[in-house]
Amino acid sequence: MKKLFLFRFFFALLVSIAIISLSGCSDPAKVALKTADANKGIAAVEKLTDQSVLAKVAVEGKNWKVRGAATDRVTDQSLLAKIAVEGIYSNVREPAVEKLTDPAMLAKVAVESKVWSIREAAVEKLTDPAMLAKVAVESKVRSIREAAVEKLTDQSVLAKIAVEEKDSDVRKAAVEKLTDQFMLAKVAVEDENALVREAAQKRLNALRKTGRY
C-alpha cells in the first residue's frame, strides 16, 4: 500500500509539473521573451497585442529576429522611443527611430540615446522648432547640438546659443544663421574664439551688403 501511495503521489506530481510547464509555454509573451527559436518566437509575437509587452520583447527577447518582429508591431510613440534609447541591438533601435513621428519623442531620443547614429537619425527627422531648440541646448554631445543648430531658425534661441554655448564650433554654427546685427557685432568683438569672431564679422558684412539688417 505504501509503495502504491508513493507511486500515485509522484505520478500526480509529474502530471502537475507537466501541466505547469505546458501552461507556461502556451503564454505567447513568455515564449516570445525566452525562446531562442525564431519561428516559435515570431509566431508568439503575432499573437501579442499589448504594446508594452511587445516593447519588452523588442528590448529583452533572446532571439534577434523575434526582437525585430516585436519592434515592427509597436506603434506607441513613447514605447518606440524607449526601444530606440534602451535597445541593445541595432535591428530594433534603428526601426524604432524610423517609426517615430512625435517631435517630443524624437527630441528625447536625440538627447538621451547613447548611440551616435541613433541620436543623429532622431535629429535628422526633427522639424519642430521648439524640440530642435531643446536638443541644441540640452544634448551633451557637441555634434548633436551643432546638427540641431543647423536646422534652427528661431533667432532668439540662436542668439542665446551664440553667446552662451561652451563649444566654439556650435557657437560658430549659430552665428552663421543669425540675422541680428547688434548680436553679431557683439560676438564679433567679444567672443574668445578667433574663428567665431571672424564668422560673426563675415555674417554681419554679408547682411549689410544685402540690406538684411
Please summarize what this structure is.
By secondary structure, the protein is mainly alpha-helical. Helices cover 76% and strands 0% of the residues. It has helices at residues 2-25, 28-34, 38-45, 51-60, 64-73, 77-86, 90-99, 103-112, 116-125, 129-138, 142-149, 155-164, 168-175, 181-190, 194-210.
Can you give a write-up of this model?
76% of the residues lie in helices and 0% in strands. It has 213 residues and is an all-alpha fold. It has a domain at 27-100. Helix 2 (28-34) packs antiparallel against helix 3 (38-45), helix 5 (64-73) packs parallel to helix 7 (90-99) and helix 7 packs parallel to helix 9.
The biggest beta sheet is recorded as: none
Question: What does the radius of gyration come to?
Answer: 28 Å
Low-confidence stretches: 15-24
Number of strands: 0
Average pLDDT for all residues:
89
Main structural class: mainly alpha
Strand proportion, as a percent range, falls in under 5%
Q: What is the string of SSEs from the N terminus onward?
A: HHHHHHHHHHHHHHH
Oligomer: single chain
How does the overall form come out from the CA principal axes?
Answer: rod-shaped
Q: Could you give the distance between the termini?
A: 105 Å
Helix percentage range: over 70%
Keywords:
213 residues, mainly alpha, 76% helix, rod-shaped
Topology:
Layout (H helix, E strand, L loop, with lengths): L1 H24 L2 H7 L3 H8 L5 H10 L3 H10 L3 H10 L3 H10 L3 H10 L3 H10 L3 H10 L3 H8 L5 H10 L3 H8 L5 H10 L3 H17 L3
